[in-house]
User: Fold this.
Amino acid sequence: MGFYVAQLLTGLANASSLFLIACGLSIIFGVTRIVNFAHGSFYMVGAYLAYSIVALFPGSILGFWGGVIAAALIVGLLGLVVEMTILRRIYRAPELFQLVATFGVVLIIQDMAQAIWGAEDKLGPRAPGLSSAVRIMGEPIPEYDLALILIGPAVLAGIWLLFHRTRWGVLVRAATQDREMVGALGVNQAWLFSATFVLGAALAGLGGAIQIPRESVNLQMDLSVIGDAFVVVVIGGMGSVSGAFVAAVLISVLNAFAVLVYPQISIVLPFVVMAVVLIVRPYGLFGKEGSGHGAPTEPEQPLRLMSSRATLVLMALVFALAASPLVASDFASILLVDLMVATLFAVSLHFMMGLGGMVSFGHAAYFGVGAYGAAMAVSYLGLPMIPAMIVGPLAAAVAALFFGWFCVRLSGVYLAMLTLAAAQILWGVTFQSQEYTGGDDGIVGIWPASWATSDQAYFYVAFALCIGGIWFLRRVAHSPFGYGLRGVRDSDVRAEAIGMDVKFHQWMGFALAGTMAGLAGVVFAFSKGSVFPDVLGIGQSVDGLVMVLLGGIHALAGPILGAGVFVLIEDWVSRLDYWRFIFGMIILGVVLLAPDGVAGGVDRLMRALGLRREGQT
Amino acid sequence: MLEVKDLTARYGRAQILNGVSLRVGGNEVVALLGRNGAGKTTTMKCVMGLVLQKAGEITYDGVSILGKPSHEICRLGIGYVPEERRIFGDLTVEENLEVGDRPARADAPEWSREHLFELFPNLAERRRNLGKQLSGGEQQMLTIARTLMGNPKVVLLDEPSEGIAPVIVEQMARVIKELKAEGLSVLLSEQNLHFARAVADRACIIEKGTLRYEGGFADLDAHPEISQQYLAV
Assistant:
């Protein structure tokens, strides 16, 4: 019995930090509608700062808690800088474009943290005065855990008072429902957004700071916590603080007991819980359907067939690409294969997001299943390259049909989160199923058939598959099915009213996008000769998102441009020191200069130069 | 006071207004009449800075407000009561009023909570209820009271009689007369000519985003073909 109580208390102590970061994320999303990927970075910086400040006052109780609070405040200031210099300029940009900007911030903060604190893990001090353990029902419980258990509810109570007893809090709650109306009532939204961002960032910083006596501070904290934080926010309901608390306790306590039964479960458990909650309650436990009154958005423009001139340019590019192995070095051919893989992946994601209106944070799932499908077909079934290349996309199709069936029942950011959950579950399973997937060691020795082993020959295999796949998706975009998909995106009610099966349409769109991502994964697997769990990871999904959003979501050419720019820049900067910093800066530059993506920016530039008529896309 | 000249506006590629001009004088109630989709709401949203793609002139007290953010427009003394009410459903009646609260201004009457609760007795009884628990008529009153908390000089009232019970419509008419008695100016959008005639000094009729008629109700009654052409459904 005492043992179970101890597990319960550990779970509750874990919940506190998770609650702090998640409620900050939730408050920021509620008011600004920004999905802040940089929230994990604020958490990490909070931990590093607390580590450094507390070290100045060894053994002092006041020094410890003062340091923790100072760290949170400094992170709040950091949030203010991010909001005022970057996010404030792009609130009117298409929704989710801010997400790309926050991802740029993640990269910049990663390298800055490494420059300041170095790459080694930092071990924080124990909390003075709370460094021993007390016995509860015979089990030793760290005193610090008990303090943490109190901190969570104390912060919850503080936020409740702030939100219900101050004018500022009332304004925040009002803005969570209808921020445009709050503006029309005379409230300066810019300052409300800034203040909200500061509060959210400071809470994340506090969440990181209080963790230092319990776990080492490292450079991977940012992305490792962001997945769990998203899950907590979504389970609780986006924008709900009490929901975040309940969800943080639920996840942490379930986890504390589930690891007793099945130790490997902790990687996937939060995502499984989230998937279950979203299927039962599509807006989370305490969430509500978002208000329709966000930032004013422009209606989507119809896609047009390309003009003959644009077709000629595109054909010329494809022919140049086809002829490139004749002149390019082997190294360049490999880079071009990477480029084509990334482009097909981005085009498939754009098919889902831009045409289908279904944003995916977990598109890597299908890329990875395609890659693993082909790799396992080679290593276990002993299939040659061509049959394995068929198995991969089929496996991705099956996975996309399965997860898509659940995902299309949701919409907006909840749909996006469920796709993330699906990807994380697949990643966790792949990571842990050592005997089938090789776990962290991956599957190696996936080489092309003997006739395709030269870089040139494989280039043409990749060329046929990737360009074929991109061409196919473009054809579908202009087919009746594509019209239907866009109709559903623009108004599901009207589409339903004219007799379309909305969910079925979205489901098929989801599956097709997943299948094509799987095809990209297959080409990738054979070009590298190996697959590792990374191909299913958040990083791969985010890369795809950045490519699509950077390229411009409103144009069919967007993902092609975005992938091209992304791969070439990454290839160029990743050879440099602090390439993340540079890459993040480039992303921010693009975001600030061309808030409608590279395609939109090029479009505006051409209009400004008189090269293109108004209305032509 | 409030003057709109040659206002054009569009959402994306859809042109909504093709040159609307109108004027609201001091302590005047002007009815903006037109069918569904004529551009009444868009005109008001343009004045309030809630439509991005617009051109023309909008001046308030001789100062251009075109392109200003909506909170600055509100702070100049223009209050906006939106058509869909847009009360904050998860906030109590009192908290809804708190959101609208602005400091008093010298050139406009000051509205206190107590004064507003006298004007809208139903709201006084429900001051601790959540906005979403109110009836449609109560929500309509709350949205007007919330705007008055900002102590405006001009109120833009978008279809206050839409979708509420006849007895509440009568109360709305009394409220508008009370606003005029307090010295406010009102721009009122309406589809209902009878309601407009009962409360407004002048009428503007728009159709397909263009001003078709401006003048008194007597003229309008003398020429029934005008309302027949632009208002009858």
Q: What stands out?
A: The longest strand of chain A covers residues 133-136. The domain at 308-608 of chain A is CATH 1.10.3470 (ABC transporter involved in vitamin B12 uptake, BtuC).
